[in-house]
Amino acid sequence: MAFYTEGPTTQGRGPVHLVFDVNETLLDTAALDPLFMRWFGTEARRGEWFLILQETWMTANLVGHFAPFAELAKSALRQLGAKHGVSIAPADEQALVDGVLGMPAHADAVEALAGLRQQGHTLTALTNSASAAAQHQLAQAGLAAYFDAILSVDQVERYKPAPEPYRAAAAHWSVAPEAMVMVAAHGWDLIGAQAVGMRTAFVARPGKAMDPALEQVPTWRSDDLSQLMAQVVAAG
Questions:
Q1: From CA 176, how far away is CA 223, in angstroms rounded?
Q2: For residue 115, what is the enclosing H or E element?
Q3: Angle subtended at Cα 46 by Cα 45 and Cα 48, rounded to the nearest 5 degrees
Q4: Secondary structure of 18-76 in the HEC alphabet?
Q5: Alpha carbon distance 196, 54 (integer Å)
Q6: Among its keywords, does the record have Hydrolase (predicted)?
Q7: Closest CA to 109 of 84, 145, 133
Q8: Of 20, 27, 76, nearest to 50 (Cα)?
Q9: What is the pLDDT of residues 115-153, one digit of tens each?
């Protein structure tokens, strides 16, 4: 769905500062399924690995010990292996890192970002991936050129949903968080963004959901990124 047609229902009140999560929101982690099938005999372990990874970086935040995202991803894989009695070799850890670096864009990502770029909105990527990794990920997926800035939590050494990464994104553009919209496929990411004042847009990727009882988060929701951005742009 293209959403950059001229007209009052799509133009909103002017350019919008849009902040995008990367992993799962723009890039499809389902591309990792063959690895988890090889190691564990089921693709379902990929989602379990990501939950362990989230727990690992949130623990890092709580104890105040920042470690590179790739190291946490490897640690989560080793934990998953120990849980299920599967031996994880260093080559397996590297295969996972390589897989994360090579994930493709979701099918709706290019059209959505291209439409936003054509309209003149400011597009920022804000990711828990390391800075160099994020640049590589978005470039190989054909998305890097659409962004005005690609920001990593590396600069503040705190993982989302801690407040520091969102505030750093606002500071990068010298705007208030209230002037920005955070776009993500994760409820925890949007709750973190809303806590510092950002408006929020939830793209319901397969297997992702938000608590329907939450009244303020997200501001907008859709299972299609172009349709979601149409809602955001119309609101201005």
A1: 28
A2: helix 109-119
A3: 60
A4: EEECCECCCECHHHHHHHHHHHHCCCCHHHHHHHHHHHHHHHHHHHCCCCCHHHHHHHH
A5: 20
A6: yes
A7: 145
A8: 76
A9: 999 999 999 999 999 999 999 999 999 999 999 999 999
pLDDT in tens, 179-188: 999 999 999 9
pTM given for the model: 0.92
Give 221's contacts (C-beta < 8 A, 6+ positions apart): 201, 202, 203, 204, 210, 228
Measured in residues, the chain has a length of 236
Helix, strand, or coil (residue 95) = helix
What residue ranges define each of the domains in the chain, with the CATH number in brackets?
Answer: 8-28+105-235 (3.40.50.1000), 30-101 (1.10.150.240)
Neighbouring residues of 157: CB distance < 8 A, sequence distance ≥ 6: 66
- DSSP class per residue in 214-235: -SSS-SEEESSHHHHHHHHHHH
The contacts of residue 41 (CB under 8 Å, 6+ apart) are none
| 108's tokens | 């709706």
